[in-house]
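Students often ask why inverse folding is considered easier than folding. One informal answer: many sequences map to the same fold, so there is more than one right answer. In these notes we will look at a single instance of the problem. The structure comes first.
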């Protein structure tokens, strides 16, 4: 009798477990079906919000204070939703479409989502200066000691230098171009597979405003337009700045 009771009890446990699995399976299917209907019906109401995917097409300016500098930037140029407010911040991240130098809009949607076949978004970061020299100023005392000479020709009069093995800049190249009466253009770019996977593998930093450093990151395809790019980016940043 004890053996029979044990076998019966074991059968009940297995049967209950199986029924629970079946029940949960149907419950999951039911939830998925409800979600599918909700998405289908709700799409017409939330389609605009979903399409923005964190972007905004609002052009009203926001005033952000970083140290002794005040930045007035349109909301659609500010990358992160939490930063789209007036007030004090330690850093501000922006993005722009090249060459229009505008923020997100319906007309720019494909470019911002990287769906038009061209990498055209430039990312800007404004923050307090942490170094005594910007990237151009670091060329002679720092980068020149860490690069392999003589370099190879790049686009539009530029020279591309590889970094030495012990430089700390693995898988990067230094892009340098001379300018009459101005400090040289200097940028660092990722190389190889990492560059192919990145939307903006090149970066350059310059001093702007009273106490700010502007770092901008851009597609490597834009190296051939370095003169226009540098002029436009620094000009846009300076136009948004008001020293307190």
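Output (designed amino acids):
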């Amino acid at each position: 009798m004890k053996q029979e009771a044990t076998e019966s009890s074991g059968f009940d446990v297995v049967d209950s477990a199986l029924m629970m699995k079946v029940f949960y399976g149907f419950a999951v299917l039911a939830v998925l079906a409800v979600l599918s209907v909700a998405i289908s019906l709700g799409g017409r109401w939330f389609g605009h919000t979903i399409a923005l995917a964190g972007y905004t097409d609002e052009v009203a300016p926001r005033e952000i204070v970083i140290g002794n500098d005040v930045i007035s930037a349109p909301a659609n140029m500010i990358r992160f939703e939490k930063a789209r407010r007036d007030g004090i911040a330690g850093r501000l991240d922006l993005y722009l479409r090249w060459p229009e130098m505008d923020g997100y809009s319906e007309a720019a949607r494909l470019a911002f989502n990287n769906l038009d076949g061209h990498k055209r978004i430039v990312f800007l970061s404004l923050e307090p200066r942490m170094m005594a020299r910007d990237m151009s100023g670091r060329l002679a005392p720092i980068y020149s000691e860490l690069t392999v000479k003589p370099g190879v020709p790049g686009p539009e009069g530029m020279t591309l230098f590889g970094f030495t093995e012990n430089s700390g800049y693995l898988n990067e190249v230094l892009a340098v171009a001379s300018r009459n009466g101005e400090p040289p253009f200097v940028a660092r770019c990722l190389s190889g597979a990492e560059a192919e996977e990145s939307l903006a593998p090149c970066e350059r930093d310059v001093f702007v405003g009273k106490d700010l450093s502007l770092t901008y990151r851009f597609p490597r395809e834009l190296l051939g337009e370095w003169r226009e790019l540098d002029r436009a980016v620094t000009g846009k940043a300076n136009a948004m700045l008001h020293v307190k």
